[in-house]
Design goal:
Length: 293
């Protein structure tokens, strides 16, 4: 995870290590290397600018210049700024209605269906009784995929009439009440690109079920495209947060470091493998730790 970014940032820290005394020029060089590392990791340009502004002032202060371990001081400054960009604190799910409703949205291939099952697994571990709902009626394979995942993890999946997503979701809610499922996770339709028909349908589902959470699933491998679609989804649907998937691949880090700042909405979970348990609650400090190695 983040190997490339980690290696590049390591080069910045090396510029300040093993020196008896460092100069402002040494610090400026290290800051420049941090900037390059973030840009190469596909972090949004505005985010990089703010990040660099944040660390420059602190790094040029007396503490780093006079320190016997300037590299360690500098790493701490970078770590603090990373945590700030990632959103400081983890933001838990807000599930207040009974049964609670989590609506999953996102582009096709982002990992939405897989994440629906993963989230079910995670919530069951916390003592809940989830019902998964297959409401992606345009991609019959998605319904079958969710049914298969349900079988694999031994969790009920509601499919309904496989035609009208609003009707499916409404019927699923009735089934949840009958079967005492306390949380319903809706896998909705995605497309390869954002289009009006998809957004209209998602809005209809939102007004019909009033979800407690609307989580957008974004693929970390798709870089700034993912951040741009996150912005568009958030403007149309008022998301409550994100799940960033495929961080186990060679994702460069751009998505996870930009999405909060660009949309103002928190990352709530990360996807770290294809398996049903490959999901974790998102903790900014832990991810910063992984980036720094
Ligand atoms: P959807 O079209 O958004 O519903 O996407 P899918 O759930 O079908 O996922 C697309 C592909 O991404 C599948 O092969 C999943 O196994 C894979 N996938 C989803 N999440 C992750 C993840 O966190 N890590 C990895 N490595 N693969 C993932």
């Amino acid at each position: 995870m983040f190997e490339n970014l980690q290696e590049k940032l390591g080069r910045a820290f090396k510029l300040l290590s093993g020196k008896g005394r460092i100069s402002e020029k040494n610090i400026e060089d290290a800051v420049k290397q941090v900037k390059l590392s973030l840009l190469e990791a596909d972090v949004n340009y505005k985010v990089v600018k703010e990040f660099i502004g944040g660390i420059t002032e602190k790094a040029l202060g007396e503490e780093v210049l006079k320190s016997f371990t300037p590299d360690q001081q500098f790493i701490k400054i970078v770590r603090d700024e990373l945590i700030k960009m990632l959103g400081e604190k983890s933001v838990p799910l807000k599930l207040s209605s009974q049964p609670s409703k989590i609506m999953m949205v996102g582009l096709q291939g982002s990992g939405k269906t897989t994440t629906t099952a993963k989230l079910g697994t995670l919530l069951r571990k916390e003592g809940r009784k989830p019902l998964l709902v297959a409401a992606d009626v345009y991609r019959p394979a998605a319904i079958d995929q969710l049914m298969q995942l349900g079988k694999q993890i031994d969790m009920p999946v509601f499919t309904g009439d496989r035609k009208n997503p609003v009707k499916i979701v409404q019927e699923a809610m009735q089934q949840a009440v009958r079967n005492i499922n306390d949380v319903v996770i809706l896998d909705t339709a995605g497309r390869l690109h954002i289009d009006d028909a998809m957004m209209r349908e998602l809005k209809e589902i939102v007004s019909a079920v009033k979800p407690d959470e609307i989580l957008m699933v974004v693929d970390a491998m798709t870089g700034q495209d993912a951040v741009n679609s996150a912005k568009a989804f958030n403007e149309a649907l008022e998301l409550s947060g994100f799940v960033v998937t495929k961080l186990d691949g060679d994702a460069r880090g751009g998505v996870i470091l930009s999405i909060r700042h660009v949309t103002g909405k928190p990352v709530k979970f990360i996807g770290i493998s294809e398996k049903p348990d490959g999901i974790e609650a998102f903790h900014p400090d832990r991810v910063a730790g992984r980036i720094l190695g």
